[in-house]
C-alpha cells in the first residue's frame, strides 16, 4: 500500500468515514494547526533532557491532541459512528488534567518577571515550549471556526494548554 494515493491532487482530502472536503476547509485548517502543534511538541521532547515531568506532560498532551484531531476529523453527523467504532471522544477529563498541571506549576514559586522574551534563557526547551504556545493559540483560533460543531471542552483545552505551555517554559528556565 502506497502512502501516495493521488486522491488529493485535485485539492480535496478525506475526513473520517470517507467524507471528502477541500484542503482549505475550516476543519482541515484546524486539523493542520493542531497537527503542527503536535509535531512541535515532538521537538520539545528532544530537548527535555532530565526534566522528566515536562517530558511526561508533553507525551500526555501529544496523546490528547491525537484524540482531539480524531474528533476534528469527524463531521458532526458521523460522531455516533465515531463512538461506535470505539474512538475516544474529547472531554472534560482532558481539561481537568491541564488545570491540575497548571496548579502544580503555579504552586512551585517560579519567579516570573513580567513579559518573557522567548529564547532569552538560551535553553532550547523553553524556546520550543514558547513556540508551541504560539502554535497552540493559532490552533485555538482556527478551531473557533468550528465552535458550533465542537465539544466546548476542546476550545477550553486549547486555551488553557497555551497557558500551561507558557508555565512549562518558565519552569524549564528555572531548572537550569
Ends distance: 47 Å
Helicity level: 55-70%
Beta strand count? 2
Can you identify the CATH superfamily? Cobalamin adenosyltransferase-like
- Count of helices? 6
CATH architecture title: Up-down Bundle
Task: Tell me about the largest β-sheet.
Answer: 2 strands, antiparallel
CATH class: Mainly Alpha
Briefly note the CATH topology name.
Hypothetical Protein Ta1238, Chain: A
Description:
By secondary structure, this protein is mainly alpha-helical. The chain has a single domain (12-105, 122-174), classed as Hypothetical Protein Ta1238, Chain: A (Up-down Bundle). 61% of the residues lie in helices and 3% in strands. The protein contains six helices and two strands; from the N terminus they run ββαααααα. It has helices at residues 26-46, 52-72, 79-84, 92-106, 124-144, 152-174, and strands at residues 12-14, 20-22. α1 (26-46) packs antiparallel against α2 (52-72). The N and C termini lie far apart (47 Å). The mean pLDDT is 90.
Outline of this structure?
The protein has 176 residues and is mainly alpha-helical.
Keywords:
mainly alpha; 61% helix; Hypothetical Protein Ta1238, Chain: A; 6 helices; 176 residues; two-stranded antiparallel sheet; 2 strands
Topology readout:
Elements: E1 12-14, E2 20-22, H1 26-46, H2 52-72, H3 79-84, H4 92-106, H5 124-144, H6 152-174
Antiparallel strand pairs: 1-2
Amino acid at each position: 500500500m502506497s502512502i501516495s494515493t493521488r486522491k488529493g491532487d485535485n485539492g480535496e482530502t478525506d475526513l473520517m468515514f470517507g467524507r471528502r472536503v477541500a484542503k482549505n476547509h475550516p476543519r482541515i485548517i484546524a486539523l493542520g494547526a493542531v497537527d503542527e502543534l503536535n509535531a512541535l511538541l515532538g521537538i520539545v521532547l528532544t530537548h527535555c533532557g532530565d526534566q522528566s515531568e515536562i517530558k511526561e506532560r508533553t507525551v500526555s498532551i501529544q496523546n490528547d491532541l491525537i484524540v482531539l484531531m480524531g474528533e476534528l476529523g469527524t463531521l458532526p453527523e458521523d460522531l455516533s459512528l465515531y463512538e461506535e467504532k470505539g474512538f475516544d471522544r474529547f472531554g472534560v477529563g482532558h481539561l481537568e488534567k491541564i488545570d491540575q498541571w497548571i496548579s502544580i506549576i503555579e504552586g512551585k514559586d517560579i519567579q516570573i518577571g513580567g513579559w518573557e522574551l522567548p529564547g532569552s534563557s538560551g535553553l532550547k526547551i523553553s524556546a520550543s515550549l514558547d513556540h508551541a504556545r504560539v502554535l497552540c493559540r493559532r490552533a485555538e483560533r482556527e478551531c473557533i471556526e468550528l465552535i458550533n460543531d465542537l465539544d466546548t471542552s476542546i476550545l477550553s483545552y486549547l486555551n488553557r494548554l497555551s497557558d500551561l505551555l507558557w508555565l512549562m517554559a518558565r519552569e524549564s528556565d528555572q531548572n537550569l
